[in-house]
Specification:
This protein is of the alpha+beta class. Helix content is 38%, strand content 12%. The C terminus is likely disordered. InterPro entries: Kinase-like_dom_sf, Prot_kinase_dom, Ser-Thr/Tyr_kinase_cat_dom, Tyr_kinase_AS.
């Protein structure tokens, strides 16, 4: 999703959910994914999020309740995006099944859902850290 590659350089969405990724098919040739609802966006350079902010959003990494919403970072976006990818691939929400037709894809999804997905965080940040 190129949109999230661009976004991670400037801000974090913080509310990635099944309802905020819109999919539209055009003439059976093109599929467009759109990101919506930017009400919880966090500009990376900003310190406006209070340490006491409550956790918001729907596909949150369980670790987020421990570290707090003020500590939201790329790895939490990856956790939510992994759930979206799983849903697109197999039509099941995390907890109701994981895509398993390909061991490589399943392994990729499990890394994204892992408590320590630092491997993906480093990949997501790439050369523009």
């Amino acid at each position: 999703m190129p949109s999230f590659t661009f976004m991670r350089r400037e801000f974090l969405h913080r509310d990635i959910s099944y309802h905020n990724i819109l999919i539209h098919h055009f003439d059976q040739m093109w599929t467009v994914l759109k990101i919506s609802d930017f009400g919880l966006v966090k500009i990376l350079e900003s310190s406006l999020t209070s340490k006491d902010s409550s956790v918001k959003g729907s596909l949150n990494d369980p670790d987020l309740t421990k570290v707090g919403f003020a500590s939201y970072e790329v790895r939490h976006e990856i956790y939510a995006l992994t759930q979206i990818v799983n849903f697109i691939l197999c039509g099941k929400k995390h907890g109701n099944g994981l895509y398993s037709e390909s061991q490589a894809v399943k392994g990729f999804l499990l890394k994204g859902l892992a408590a320590n997905n630092s491997v993906f965080t480093n990949l997501a940040l790439g050369p523009n850290k």
